[in-house]
Write a structure and sequence with these properties.
Layout (H helix, E strand, L loop, with lengths): L15 E5 L2 E4 L4 E4 L2 H4 L8 H13 L10 H12 L5 E5 L2 H18 L7 E5 L8 H7 L2 H4 L9 E4 L4 H7 L4 E6 L2 E2 L5 E2 L2 H14 L2 E6 L22 E4 L10 E5 L20 H14 L4 H22 L4 E7 L2 E6 L3 H10 L2 E2 L1 E3 L3 E4 L7 H19 L10
Parallel strand pairs: 3-15, 5-6, 5-7, 7-10, 10-11
Antiparallel strand pairs: 1-2, 2-3, 4-12, 8-9, 11-12, 13-14, 14-17, 16-17
This protein binds pyridoxal-5'-phosphate.
Length: 399
């Protein structure tokens, strides 16, 4: 590995040269079942023909013009996202953290605009992950990620995830919003209780706060609905999404109601690339698939299949697997042995997963995963648990 890259990542020593659907092919010819999806990004798997075609077609016409001009592709994507969600206004970004940052600015601007500029603090949850800018790090408050980057950006009050009393007690005259992930991804696939989500909405209404959801990971169909909060039957005021929205093309979005976004007028925010013709063309092609008849129903069905396979693995290997977590195709399995050891053994057996906090392995296949592929992955999880349980080296099995 080259020393020319900043060594900020603990990279696994594999380079892939090709991907197809749920499969990745390494330079050494091995193939892997990809249940990592580039960290819950490749919603349509690798090289889906429809998005390849959209990219090629737009790539031959026009890539980038900046937001100095109208971008019809991005207007269309925004209209379609609004038509299928709570939102009336969209701001496009290139990443998840920029969508979160846009939401934080929007929240402050809303209260400034409505005559309450003293409301600028945001209540956030422990175990959260909102990205790696200084502001997003302060919002999540993970000491591991903040270390060495002092001073911490002010304005965030952290409470335990899912504790309504603590959350209500943290609201003051300076509180502007509550920011949380309906399903914490990085934090260990911890799903908020649906009643808690409904109580959050009521709390926001009671105190005049904006409800700001980070659905960068759990949104765009991964939970089995377009957005995870829809399971609770509530609507937020602001929502950040990214990961699956471009299925691998860097794209993110901040969604808001017209009321919440009223302060975001000309000149208040910007991005050079955000929602450029190439990104928006890919985003529209991804959305064509995700909104197609039966797509989300299939995600839900595959999610149920994966969930019940994970439950059975926990019952069968209680010394290896502690708990199955998650919803839809955003799943996790908490491990007894170090999750890193399992991740390594699974990879050697041809299955890719992602680590998360609380010794959890994230299991996040492309949303187009087949029934047979989920069975294959579960069989590998089963065999690796057998091997780890008897302390033998997990053997390489070509899936
Ligand atoms: C990945 C993630 C982010 C940050 O997204 P980037 O594209 O890495 O900036 C923010 N919030 C959540 C919930 C995430 O999972």
């Amino acid at each position: 590995m080259t020393g020319a890259l900043m060594p900020t990542y603990n990279r696994i020593d594999i380079a892939f040269e090709r991907g197809e659907g749920c499969w990745l092919f390494a330079e050494d010819g091995r193939r892997y079942l990809d249940f990592a999806s580039g960290i819950a990004v490749n919603a349509l798997g690798h090289c889906h023909p429809k998005i390849v075609a959209a990219l090629e077609e737009q790539g031959r016409k026009l890539w980038h013009v900046s937001n100095l001009y109208r971008i019809p592709q991005s207007e269309r994507l925004a209209e379609r996202l609004c038509a299928n969600s709570f939102a009336d206004r969209i701001f496009f970004t290139n990443s998840g953290v920029e969508a979160v940052e846009c939401g934080i600015k929007l929240v402050r601007k809303y209260h400034d605009e409505t005559g309450q500029p003293q409301r600028w603090r945001i209540v956030t949850c422990e175990g959260a992950f909102h990205g790696r800018t200084l502001t997003a790090l302060a919002a999540a408050g993970n000491p591991k990620y903040l270390a060495g980057f002092a001073p911490e950006v002010p304005g965030f009050d952290r409470v335990a995830f899912g504790n309504l009393n603590e959350l209500r007690a943290a609201v003051t005259d300076e509180t502007a919003a509550i920011l949380m992930e309906p399903i914490q991804g990085e934090g260990g696939i911890r799903a908020a209780d649906l009643d808690f989500m409904r109580a959050l909405r009521e709390t926001c209404d009671e105190f005049g706060l904006l409800l700001f959801l980070d659905e960068v990971q759990c949104g765009m169909g991964r939970s089995g609905k377009l957005f995870a909060h829809q399971w609770a039957g509530i609507e937020p005021d602001v929502l950040a999404t990214a990961k699956g929205i471009g299925s691998g093309f860097p794209l993110g979005a901040c969604l808001a109601t017209a009321k919440a976004a009223q302060g975001m007028t000309a000149g208040t925010h910007g991005s050079t690339y955000g929602g450029n013709p190439l990104a928006a063309a890919v985003g529209n092609a991804v959305l064509d698939e995700v909104l197609a008849d039966g797509f989300l129903e299939r995600v839900e069905a595959r999610g149920r299949q994966l969930g019940s396979r994970l439950e059975r693995l926990v019952a069968k290997h209680p010394k290896v697997y502690a708990q199955a977590r998650g919803a839809g195709l955003l799943r996790g399995i908490q491990c007894h042995p170090p999750a890193g050891k399992l991740l390594e053994a699974l990879r050697q057996s041809g299955l890719l997963t992602v680590p998360a906090a609380e010794n959890v392995l994230r299991i996040v296949p492309p949303l187009v995963v087949s029934e047979a592929e989920i069975d294959q992955a579960a069989d590998i999880l089963d065999r690796v648990a057998d091997a780890i349980g008897t302390d033998t080296q997990a053997a390489w099995v070509t899936p």
